[in-house]
Amino acid sequence: MPCNSLAANLPFQLLGLSIATLSTVTRYGLHFSTISNVALESSSYRAIYHAAFYVGVCLSMTLILAALLSAVATVRESRFLTATAFFCFALAFCGLTPVACWRYMHSTEVEDSMLDVYDLVYDEVRRNESSSRRHELTIIHEVFLCCGKYSPLGDIAAVEHKMCPGMAWAAGRDCLQKMHGFLKKHMGFVSTLLSITIGFTVYGMVLTSFLWFSIHFSNNLDRKGKYTLRGRKATALICLLLPSHKGGIETGTMGSKPSIGLTMCP
């Protein structure tokens, strides 16, 4: 049973680790951290950036805790641990559902906030080439391997040449398109992981509910019951079941432990 319990809870632990890994990549990944470092404090990107990390960490810890509690509850057949595991799964579900709704109702907000940060830095450097943000724009170009953005006026080639050294200039791709492609892949992975996690969370709630009722009604086939007969009722019951025996059982106590002796049935 311990092996079966660990195998059944392994997907939940893997999902929790996946969410934690994705949150860490979003927080400390080079692309996201570069944009965060140049964004203004009041930028919507910074709010999304920090919220994504903390929400992801909380959800991953809740899932891993639910999986561990469920495994221990199965082994120990504890109703309290099973109920706690169910609560953790329900808490994770309540956290995942708003995140999924926000993802689909504001599908372009992350992309728009990142592009706004780039537009702000790019336009400021274009207006004033001696701006302190020139170095920040150069770092963005090097990280995303892009160079400037497309303009129908076609009058910014000289400026881009100064701001896109080395590999960024050789790549020559529009930064807005490059960021769009990068975020499309990343958010696609986020959506897939959210869908899988929500499905397994519902499965976890159903599983822990079944486990709780199974333990509550003693339907576990591996359970070994312990039955204790005490006092005169025990003697009368044994005399009734064994009428051919003249000897009965006398129950009493010796110290702190119950003792059983022979007595005569009436």
TrEMBL record:
InterPro entries recorded: Tetraspanin/Peripherin, Tetraspanin_animals, Tetraspanin_EC2_sf
Disulphide linkage map: 146-175, 147-164
Location(s), subcellular: Membrane
Membrane protein topology class: Multi-pass membrane protein
Keyword Membrane among record annotations: yes
Source organism, top-level taxon: Eukaryota
Principal localisation: membrane
Membrane-spanning intervals of the chain: 12-30, 51-74, 80-105, 187-213
A single cellular component GO annotation: membrane
Key words, A-Z: Disulfide bond, Membrane, Transmembrane, Transmembrane helix
One Pfam family here: Tetraspanin
Keyword Glycoprotein: no
Gene3D superfamilies xref list: Tetraspanin
Family per similarity comment: Belongs to the tetraspanin (TM4SF) family.
The protein's name: Tetraspanin
Organism of this sequence: Callipepla squamata (Scaled quail)
